[in-house]
Design goal:
- The complex is a heterodimer of chains A (82) and B (449).
- With 82 residues, chain A is mainly α.
- Chain A contains three helices and no strands.
- In chain A, helix 1 crosses helix 2.
- Chain B is of the alpha/beta class and 449 residues long.
- Chain B has three domains: 145 residues, FAD/NAD(P)-binding domain; 112 residues, FAD/NAD(P)-binding domain (3-Layer(bba) Sandwich); 124 residues, FAD/NAD(P)-binding domain (3-Layer(bba) Sandwich), CATH 3.50.50.60.
- In chain B, the strands form seven sheets. Chain B has a five-stranded parallel β-sheet. In chain B, strands 9-16-10-11-12 form a five-stranded parallel β-sheet. In chain B, strands 22-23-26-25-24 form a five-stranded antiparallel β-sheet.
- In chain B, 50% of the residues are buried.
- The interface between A and B is large, with 40 and 49 residues.
- The structure holds flavin-adenine dinucleotide.
- The site of flavin-adenine dinucleotide has 32 residues of chain B, from helix 1, helix 2 and helix 8.
């Protein structure tokens, strides 16, 4: 698996886990207990990667995501809406 | 090149491939247009399959939108049950076994496959995926003689299947690792009425459990073993994520993006000249975040096919980044939205606040009135609405389309708060639920100031 795909897959998984926990805390009446893998790898992603990722301002983070989403950061030509 | 001799080949006969073929033929009538599909049929709606299985729709025949003869009559050469085995980008041919077919323009519309879970017993007889209509017809017959079904994953398809099989009268278990339904895309407050409705239909929902094994006897499925216990069943439906079917494109050397979809620009052009891609095999740009995404809907595949088909036929057409209006029925409840919900905004760490309210679908005294919950996700700096999610008894699809159109044009929460709306007792309440949500959001903001 290419680095971009590997990073995206794992980042998505653990960012989603953290986000779902936070949303579940906001709406506890609608949520059950989710399944969670245990061990060092999930611990590191959730306790190191996620907080570091979220500490970076969104504008910067979006640039990083876009750069890692395309080989060499070359975005194909698409209209921009912002 | 003159369009008279143009040879256009399309791989795929789903929404993307068929719309590409029809459009190419209409913009370049003299071109030869050939569609290869490994399936037995084209032009049917896979989206209707769950409802036939649930006996909401009486038969599969109604899902066919066109006949193969129709395509022949408009000059499209349909090659059914013909799998393309390779693409030669240098020689500009596709191969079907030893046979080679030349093209001047190639459109790849190979669609999606389900992520096959790596779980012991996954190949047992009795485990089904719902996609191809012929396999669905066979499954329908099998369902006549079974009593217990396990549906793996509370994805949109998993929810549609679970609700429909329960409606059919089968003992249906829906198994998911999440804490609420569709927890990868939707928010828990939006999904709660769907959960209630599914349970009322008789679906047993197992939240927070992981499937460990499909257990069988004599090669046939007997039960599903989960972290929450063993569930006896006759058949199981796998409703895991859709992933792009990119194998032949990748092997040929067409550039694949980080989502696994074929990278395209707004003309559906791939990294290779004269090669286009459309539908679930491609990745497109998300209008709000600018990030590539993949695995959208039949309507997206259809529109992308039209753009690819027009460009391949020599008429320029562009496709905009997507804002993804979506909607569906879960149990008896309608849900829908635009772009991302609260959970996904949190996951990506996009600054936002939530404006939410519950309104009604008709005048409160009118028979059939239902509650409608609307949630708007708003940029705290610009007040632009970034996304929305909704649930209710009616009118969700229309609101999702309207919100997508408005959000794409930069609408702010103030625009929705003071929007005009239709009031007519049988079809609309005096206070539009979208406006109520926006007003509630503004009131919250005012309190914080
Ligand atoms: C049960 C179900 C319900 C759904 N409900 C909805 C809904 O309500 N709303 C909605 O918008 N979407 C829905 N979808 C999703 C929607 O159907 C897909 O997004 C859409 O089918 C994608 O179209 P496509 O043309 O990209 O790919 P597909 O429909 O996946 O078609 C791919 C085509 O490629 C062909 N193919 C693949 N590889 C080869 C090869 N090597 N050689 C030859 N042919 C090949 C296949 O034969 C097929 O014809 C549903 C899907 C399913 C399965």
């Amino acid at each position: 698996m290419a680095f971009g795909s590997w990073l995206r897959k794992n980042a998505e998984k653990y960012l989603m886990e953290a986000a779902r926990d936070s949303v579940a805390a906001r709406y506890p009446e609608y949520c059950a207990k989710p399944y969670r893998e245990k061990g060092l790898v999930p611990f590191l992603w959730l306790n190191v990667f996620v907080p570091v990722y979220l500490a970076v301002p969104w504008r910067v983070r979006r640039k990083i995501i876009l750069f890692t989403s395309y080989p060499g950061g070359r975005r194909p030509s698409w209209k921009k809406f912002d | 090149m003159s369009n008279d001799n143009l040879r256009i080949i399309i791989i795929g006969g789903g929404a993307g491939g068929i719309s590409a073929a029809s459009t190419s033929k209409s913009v370049a009538p003299a071109a030869s247009v050939t569609v290869f599909t490994e399936f037995e049929d084209v032009a049917y709606s896979p989206c209707g399959i769950p409802f036939v299985l649930g006996k909401e729709i009486p038969d599969f025949e109604r899902l066919f939108l066109q006949t193969s003869e129709h395509y022949a009559s408009i000059g499209i050469d349909l090659r059914l049950k013909t799998a393309v085995t390779g693409i030669d980008l240098e020689g500009r041919t596709v191969s079907v076994g030893a046979d080679k077919f030349p093209w001047d323009r190639l459109i790849i519309a190979t669609g999606f496959e389900y992520e096959k879970p790596e779980i012991p017993g996954i190949d047992l007889e009795g485990i089904h995926y719902v996609k191809n209509i012929r396999r669905a017809m066979e499954f329908d017959k099998i369902l006549d003689s079974v009593k217990k079904v396990v549906v793996m994953a509370a994805t949109p398809l998993g929810i549609e299947i679970a609700g429909n099989l329960a409606h059919r009268g089968l003992e249906t278990h829906l198994v998911d690792e999440g804490a609420w339904l569709m927890s990868e895309v939707a928010d828990p407050d939006i999904m709660e009425p769907v959960q209630k409705s599914l349970e009322e239909l008789g679906t047993v929902i197992h939240f927070g459990v992981k499937v460990l094994e499909f257990r069988g006897a004599g090669g046939k499925l007997k039960s599903v073993v989960t972290t929450g216990g063993e569930i006896e069943c006759d058949v199981a439906v796998i409703a895991t994520h859709k992933k792009p079917n990119n194998r032949i494109a990748r092997e040929a050397g067409v550039e694949i993006g980080s989502t696994g979809g074929i990278m395209v620009d707004d003309h559906m052009r791939t990294s290779v000249k004269d090669v286009y891609a459309a539908g679930d095999c491609a990745e497109v740009v998300h209008g709000v975040t600018d990030i590539p995404i993949q695995g959208l809907s039949g309507s997206h595949a259809y529109s992308q096919g039209r753009v690819a088909g027009a460009n391949a036929g020599g008429v320029e057409r562009a496709y905009d980044p997507v804002f993804v209006p979506w909607g569906m029925v879960g149990g008896q409840v309608q849900i829908g939205g635009v772009s991302l919900g609260e959970t996904l905004h949190k996951a990506l760490g996009i600054p936002h606040f939530v404006a939410a309210a519950t309104g009604i679908s008709r005048a409160r005294y009118y028979p059939g009135v239902t509650r409608i919950r609307v949630k708007l996700i708003v940029d705290p700096e610009t007040h632009r609405v970034l996304g929305a999610q909704m649930s209710g008894g009616e009118g969700i699809k229309e609101r999702a389309d309207f919100l997508a159109f408005s959000i794409k044009r930069g609408a702010r929460i103030e625009d929705f708060a003071w929007m005009e709306n239709v009031y007519s007792p049988p079809i609309g309440a005096l206070m539009e639920p979208i406006a109520l949500a926006a007003q509630a959001g503004l009131a919250e903001l005012a309190k914080k100031k």
